[in-house]
Amino acid sequence: MAQAAHENFPVALRALPKHLRQHLEAIYGYARLTDNLGDEYPGDRLAALDWLQEQLEKLFAGKASHPVFRQLLPTVTAFGLSRTPFDQLLAANRMDQHKKSYANWDELMEYCRLSANPVGHLVLAVFESATDDRLAASDAVCSGLQVLEHLQDLGEDARAGRIYMPIDDMERFGCTRGDLLAPVTGKRLRSLVAHQVGRTRDMVGKGESLVASLRGYPRLAIAGFVAGGLAGLDAISAARFDVLGGNRQAGGLRLTRRFVPLYLGSLARRRRPAR
Asked: Taking CA atoms, which of 57, 79, 121, 205 is between 20 and 30 Å from 173?
């Protein structure tokens, strides 16, 4: 739960009122616990995820016992959160236990629908800002952020036996699993990464309309998440799409350069008089 406050865009999260920050940290605490059990648990991970499902059932029966779920209970109660997004995050981690590659982009997006998009739905619910248009934009942003994470962790995931780059795209650019395991990013892999950065930038860029539609603290936080994604993509581009060596994180300056015009741009559009 403590780690949740340091992910994505910590400045925006720290600027939120305590009660909102606690609700968001509770959601990210669940997401982090789910990922940790699915990715890092040293024992039977499917059994661990079964345990997590039991904890979810207790949560929605109002009988949370584990610390993560005890912190989550007031959030679920206060906003009447649906169980569906929590189940979807769990389903994504179950999928990770047996599915090690994705045939094409559509198949990867279906995975992101379970692994990333539910977080956006929960965040908008906490901000009491969920509309059909905002949810659609949030889905694009969250899926884009998931792909960005896959790009940043390409080599690490490959060493763990998982390939999140669509197989048909790898074949198109002449890449193999060996390219992902190499100590340096070869020319063919750089071309593949550049292609994915371009399509991912379009997805995260849909967050501009989402930010423009919000006010107050929701706009501040969502602008931070969107800016974090765009800055991360900028960092990869600046590194000439080298994702296997060196630092692939955005850094504070690049983050600020993305955040300020995004946030102020939405303000300017709202204040512009109607013609």
From this structure: 205
The letter for the amino acid at 10 is P
Residue 24's closest CA among 2, 55, 54, 51? 2
Give the burial class of 135: count Cβ atoms within 10 A of its Cβ; 0-12 exposed, 13-18 middle, 19 or more buried: middle
With the C-alpha atoms ordered 243, 244, 246, 251, is the resulting torsion angle positive or negative?
positive
Q: Where are the alpha helices (DSSP H) in the chain?
A: 10-14, 18-39, 45-60, 67-79, 84-96, 105-115, 117-126, 132-152, 154-159, 167-172, 177-181, 187-205, 207-212, 216-238, 252-271
- What is the pTM for the complete model shown? 0.90
Could you tell me if 268 and 221 are in contact, meaning their C-beta atoms sit under 8 angstroms apart? no
Torsion angle (degrees, nearest 10) of CA 70, 31, 204, 273: 0
72, 27 contact by CB (below 8 A): yes
